[in-house]
Structures are given as C-alpha cells and as structure tokens.
Amino acid sequence: MRFLLFLLLPFLAALDGCGGTNNEEAVTEPSAPAAGESLTKAIYKDASQPTKDRIEDLIGRMTVEEKVAQVTAVWKDKKRFYNEDFSFNADSAFAVMPHGIGHITRPSELEGPPAIGRSGLDEVNFTNAIQKWLVENTRLGIPALNHEESLHGLAALNATSWGQPISVAATFNRDLTRQLYATAARQTASRGGHVVLTPVVDVARDPRWGRVEETLGEDPFLAAQIGLQAVLGFQGDDNKWDEGEVFATLKHMAGHGEPEGGNNIAPANISERTLREVFLYPFRHIVEKGNVRNIMASYNEVNGIPSHANGWMLNTLLRDTWGYKGAVVSDYFAVRELTDRHAVALNWKAAAVLAISSGIDIELPDREAYPALVEAVNDGTLDEAILNQAVSRILQQKFDRGLFENPYTDPAGVLDNTAEDDALVRKAGAEGMILLTNDGILPFTDKIKTIAVVGPNADKVLLGGYSDMPDHFVTIKDGLENALGADSVNLIYAEGARVVEPGSWYKDPVVAIPESEDRLRIKAAARAVRQADVIVLAVGGNELTSREAWAEGHWGDRPTLDMAGLQNELIDELAKTGKPIVGLVFGGRPLDIANLIEKSSAVFQCFYLGQETGNSVADVLFGKVAPGGKLPISLPRSVGHIPAYYNYKPTARRGYLFDDVSAAWPFGYGLSYTTFNISPPTLSAASVRLGEAANVKVTVSNTGTRAGSEVVQLYIRDRFSSVTRPVRELKGFEKVYLEPGESTTVTFELGQQELELLDINMKWTVEPGEFEVMVGNSSRLKDLKSVVFTVR
Length: 792
Known about the structure:
It comes from Neolewinella agarilytica. With about 800 residues, the chain is of the alpha/beta class. It has 22 helices and 26 strands. It folds into three domains: about 45-405, Alpha-Beta Barrel (TIM Barrel); about 430-640, Rossmann fold (3-Layer(aba) Sandwich), CATH 3.40.50; about 675-790, Immunoglobulin-like (Sandwich), CATH 2.60.40.10. Strands 10-15-14-13-11-12 form a six-stranded mixed beta sheet, sandwiched between helices. The chain has a five-stranded mixed beta sheet with strand order 18-26-25-20-21. Strand 23 and strand 24 (about 765) form a beta hairpin. It starts with 8 loop residues before the first helix and ends with a strand.
C-alpha cells in the first residue's frame, strides 16, 4: 500500500532564513598536504595503534577549520551531492564540505523525479560516493558518520515499521524489544547508516503533549528497562562494533515529557529532585548499564536553563558524576534556538560558544551556528581545548566503527523487510494491545456470522510520526479479511466518520471535518451494520491529531482529550442498533473514551501497532493470541484530571468535589482472555542490614481455560523517610506465559536499585526503615498484595 513519505524537507524552506546571523563558513578549496608531508605513515592511519593515540595524532594535524567541520553536519545541502539519477555530484561536495564533515544527516531521504524510484541500493551507492570523496579529496581523508531516524524501525523505503514506542512499552517484553531494535540496526547498517537518533526515554507525564507516542510511557523504571533493551538491540552487549550494529542515541535530556501546558518544548518547571528521580533516571540507568554512544539534549528549558546551555546537566552530572564517555548531539536547529527562541545568546556565534562549552559536541542537522566556532577560536572567544574535546568524541565513534579502515558499505548486502520481520512485528502488535473491558464477547466464536468493521481508523494507514514508506501496511479491514479468508463469515465495511481531513504528519494545515458530511457517514454506517452480529469499531486519533509540534503553526498538542470530530456521535448511533461493539482505540496518546467504554462489550487501547496492524488485531480478536498488553501510561478520566500518573506523592490526589480523583485506567492495567492468580509475596529475609539484599517471590498460576501471559509487577513504598516518597514506584516486572493450570515462580531482588532514594543532600542512599513491598498485575492497590520488608 502506497502512502506519503516522511520527509521534512518541505518545512525546511520555512525554517531557512529564521532570525540570527548565518555563520556558514566561506567556501574554500580543501588544502593539500604541505610540501614534503606524507600521511601514509601517520599514527591515525595505523589501525594497530591505540585509538587514543590515533585521535591525538589526528587532532594535532587538524586546522581549526577541519576541527569545526567535524562538529557539523549536512542535511539540506546533501541534495546538491546527487543528480536526478542519484549519481554523485563532486563539484557540490567541494563547495559544501571542503574541510570534511562530521555527520551526513539522513542519507535515506533521496529525492528524484516522480518517474525515478529510490531504493536501499541507491542509499548505499550515495553514501559510498560521499565517503570516497571525503577520503580521496579532503586533506586528511576523514570519513563521515551517517545518521538516520529509527523511532519504530528505520525510517526508509521498504524498511520494517513496528508500533510506536508507547506500544512497545505496552508489551512489557524486554526480549521482544531487543529483537525489534536489532532488526532496525541490521537494516540501517546495511544501507550505510552508523548512528540512529533513537530511543526516546522521555518520561511522559502530560497526555496533552503530542509526542507521547514516541515515549515509553509515564514510569521512569519502565522507560529505563525497555530503553536499555532498545540500546542493546542497536549496539550489542560489548564495546566494539559488529556487523549489523549501529550507535544509539538516547533522547531528549531532559524534562521534555512534562512541558508547561502540554505544549511541546515549553519550559519544564520541575525541581532538581524530580528531574533526577524521574526524568533523568532512564538516562542514568542506561548510561551505567548500556554504554550508549550518543545522547541528545532537549529543546526545552529546565528551571530557566535551556538544556543545550546546561553545563551542569551535560558536563557535571552526565560526564563527571555518571562517567558518560560518549557524544552529546544537538536536537535539530536547537543551537540557533538559544538565540532565536530562548534568547540567552546574542547571536548564532554566541549560541555556538555557549552550546559547545555546555557539552554539545556536534550541531545537527545542518551547518548553522557551529561554523562560527572558527572565528570564536581565532579571536579567543572559545578555548580551542573545548573544541578539541568535542572533536575527539566524534572521531572516537569513527575509529570505533572502523571507518578509517573501511568506510564503505557492501551494495550486495542491502536489507529490506522480510517475512521474518513481518512475523516479529505481528507478534509485537498483538502483545501491545491492551484489553480494558470484555463482557465475554471475545474471543470471537463460530457463532459470529457477519462482522461489521466501522470507524475512521478501520481502513486507514496508522503508523504515527517519524515514518517513511515501509514494505506494506495491513489495515484493520485487511487483517479481518485475511483472517476470514474463504470462511463463511461475511464482512461489512463503513467509514462512519473521520478524525480530520486526510493529510500527513509533517504537512499543514490540519483540517476539521464538516459536521454535515460526517453525519451523512454516520447514518450510512448505522444502516450498514443492521445485518451484523458484531461491530468492530476503530476510533481514536491519528498522526495529525497527535504529533511533534516542531514549529509555530505546525501544531500537535491539544488542550483536550476528547476524540476529534463526531466520533462520539458515531458511537451513540451504533449503540442504538443494539449490536455488540468491540472498540479499538488508536492514536498517539490517551483519550477520553468513557462513552466508548459505556456502550461497548469490549474495548482495547491500541495506540499504534505497526505495519502488521490488521493481522495483529485479527490474531487477538479471533483468539489466536491472547491479549497481554499493559498500560504504560495511565488513562485520565478527563483533561481536568491531569496529572494522572500513578506514582504521585502522598499529599496529592486527595479528592475532587463531584468527581473521582483516580485515573480511569491505571498504569500497568490490562486484561487477558484467561485469569491468573498471584500469591501473596514471601521474603527470603524479613529484615536485612544496610548494604545487604533479599529476594521477594510470588507464585503465578493460570487459573483459566486458555493459554495467556501475565506481567507480574513489583512496587515499593518507603513507609517513612527523610524526604517524601511516591505512594508506589515500579521497581521490577516480569512477563510470564502459562498454559491453563500451569504455575511458575517469579523472583525479584530487593537491593540498592529497588530501595534507594535521593536524600536531603541529593545523595543516592538507602535509609534504614520499613518498606512496603507490593506485587500484582497493575498499579492499583486492589490488584496488589503486600509484605513489609525492613532495612536496619
């Protein structure tokens, strides 16, 4: 199925020419080696030498212009590197990067005439041509790093696209996560990519924010665990590069997920304690456990300091305290925004000096402010040692990746989507479906003879943001047709209503549906379903109603959680028919679905499930797979119930007049087609000394008649402490698969990681006292059983 490519080039024209001084370096011919100088025996060219020595040798040979080139990238101008047939244009390369370059931004975004299609082979040939030119035509022959987007699969033609990260988090499945991101790593590497700008480990605490879909939910522990598996999928377990691996990028550091008013990049007015305990926790955990090679700073400010100018966060905390050794990359255009948006730097030169001094090693996606660093070094505004440090971090990745020995990619090894990839995405999609209610109608039985599939999302491509054109997409209608095949069950389709007028994630405007038109569709749907035994109703949002609001006028955040358009009227009219409704809610963030819940026999929260969406849905509806997803983010009762996250402080959520203060559906919640019993937890030791650890165990039994999965969740509360603590904090989870009547034992450790807090002096410590240890299948108290554990 063909659909719009994800290409941001249309909006670049609007961004080009924004306020500030364009400090792009003057075009000069690259300098040849000095007379009598030979580089053939240079230390940096000798692979047998220690990398540290190779970097020092190379930096010692570089001019200021060559150094600055390594901390910049090319995006917009890369179109000048190729002709209409994608052949390489060397003349433009001389003009654009005479001294080399640090990164090539998203080389997969090749654009040619409509009659000329692109392919993965074109991408490889393009990147190889750039590397050949850099090696043979710049003075020092330094290859480039190529970076790509891979939020939910490589964003490139015919690559594999699975569900948005919020759906990956819903699986609570570490192994599956790693397999997914390893798939993207292989495909990216096969097409010449070295770095991916993924995963997002922002903790999402405001459902109004349009980037919730990109996150792993509201809990820092879950984001850390699933995010770590994404990094390991990309990079592997060790510190060296192996074939099929790429360098990951954690983003966005920090506080991005609770912006003021839910507006993207708005200030994060949060305390240092909350910043470190919640928003920085996934970064700290993954830095310590996963050797991630890149971290991206966030657009927003934290307590008055833009993250791209926050030396305390990026240098003191990240590098000096946590020991991070990798590179810090800018978010796109964020360096110039220190001048143009935040107004903390007088001009782009000042912004560049401020950013690199604060720990930003390279400016992405293009050469804007950082070329002015040449002048800054020459006039003494910037200490050259700071520039050298940034250059060394970029060169480290080039040496580690082996680019100086072989910068080229084998054209014969290009990987597209495969049948095995389809099976993996299909499995992940099914595991990411969260069953909220079921009166017994599911799974469908042979009593169902006619199914009506209805709704604005029933026959639509549902990929969400940061998507290109994957190999295919299976709609809900397609998937049900595939499952039924030549079966005698009939299928009726009606659109029913629309979310908004058709459009795309990256283009504007977003156009509302005329109500008169939608009411005609609603009447037609109500007539069409009269002969159905059941209605499968696909509603919610799409990539236009929840998306990254990257510029004024390109909005993606909303002040309401209501479903757009007349979807609730559609629900009302279908309910009047008396036919049972199975609701499927898609989109990038939580919505108010009270009306759907009230009038349906079963409801799933689906978010986005990937290119196999329809097949995943059919597998679950027909009982081929039992649902096992859990909510990675709480679903509020209304926009007025925000914040709704489960791990609140004891004095929060005291109550509302005339309303319930709790979330409609809590974090960690999700039903199955079978039932499970989790025994009361037992301790290996009821009391331990400081520094010692103990175990807590539960027995999980499948007490139903079907096979299924359950996510056993461990929550901790420090009952009395020197600083206030949340009422519950997730500190462990394990997904188990059990046949009917089968039981297993799940064991969690109670140690430093599970019990520590930031004390009054901002030191991580375990305080003596009692801890309530809670184990169950959601964050709700009634779904948990507890035992008291003492540290003395």
